Amino acid sequence: MNQISTSISPDEIMGVLSQVEINTLASVDSKDLHETLRRCSLAVLNCGSQIDDSKVVFDQFKNFDISIHRRSRGIRLDLINAPSSAFVDGQIIRGIKEHLFAVIRDIVYVHNELQNSTIDLKASPQITNAVFYILRNANILHPGVDPNLVVCWGGHAINRTEYDYTKEVGHELGLRKLNICTGCGPGAMKGPMKGATIGHAKQRHRKGRYMGFTEPGIIAAESPNPIVNELVIFPDIEKRLEAFVRTGHAFIVFPGGAGTAEEILYLLGILLHPKNKETPFPLIFTGPKESAGYFEKLNEFIGSTLGSEAQKKYKIIIDNPEKVAKRIIKDIAKVRNYRRKQSDAFYYNWKLKIDENFQQPFIPNHQNMASLAISRDQPTHTLASNLRKAFSGIVAGNIKDEGIRAIEKHGPFKINGDKDIMLALDHLLESFVAQGRMKLAKNDYKPCYHVIK
Q: Does the reported pTM lie above 0.85?
């Protein structure tokens, strides 16, 4: 594979930097921090890759490196053995360049301003503040703007029919001048953005926002798609998920696999908390008519594990993009009125209650996966949290570098729990495998988990 070594400068992407900020960026000497920067930068430069296996990506570009140098007017990046697909006629593609400096901005900010500060990242309110600070530093939060941000979740390994449907829904949202936020990758993360760009263009809406939230563990398998114009890298999946629910005004879920199930369970667990009972939170599951069976299986799983109250938190709309968009507009109006009555910000949902067990990073190793408390002997929202962690481990075993290596060394993760819940979980996972929703390489998928029934 062709590779390029070159030097680039941020231009106006990172704004005007003080000498202190320049020195801070250029003095990254932590081995672990450098490796995180290297891997995330490679993921951005590898935009458009058809590989969703982080281990394969890192092995393929093991000679890639990046270094930051100080200059009197700012910083310079040296890229060594970067993927040639990130360049046109020897010049780095503008969007990729923006994403590359967003990586540096967020990772260095988290390291210097949050992890090395007095903020207690073990305390729930401080975690919420940390998420806010990361978003503010990335200029994501815009006061004085009416609610208009739709978060779209769904899988990267969807089929063409489902992908086209996500574009149609995005188009209807764009026609209504709504902005899009996704996990930033391909598939159901790219489709709504692509559709929205056309809708925005038809309305001559020139300030469309296509926001992508990601984290170091998953970015290599789901490189930011080229439509993303505001990229944010969070330090872990939990802060990434909290950023979605704090900033989004409505949520749409398209067909997906384990990662989408993780996101759904995270959100339902929060909405099932008694303190969030009266909070309006638009949530729609949608897909083409060919995907009706997928949502039937998902709805059945939610009902059998979390109950009918969880099923009331969302609406399923099949094969009707216009109806989805109209419902979103109607429900966002309820969000707007509620936030005004509660004196809560439009740009950050401060009043939403998120328990600490949804916020603390879950390390998906064999011991932690086997120790998950997946039983009915706990509040329903806590069960949702633990089920979410089980799916987080499956995602790690499927596409994350560390998870893949752990599976290769120790075998599949073991998941224990109440028998009826395990049967429901195994049934859902079997349907994901049969429908090719676990990885892009659908034909030779080998489960990274073993559900003990």
A: yes
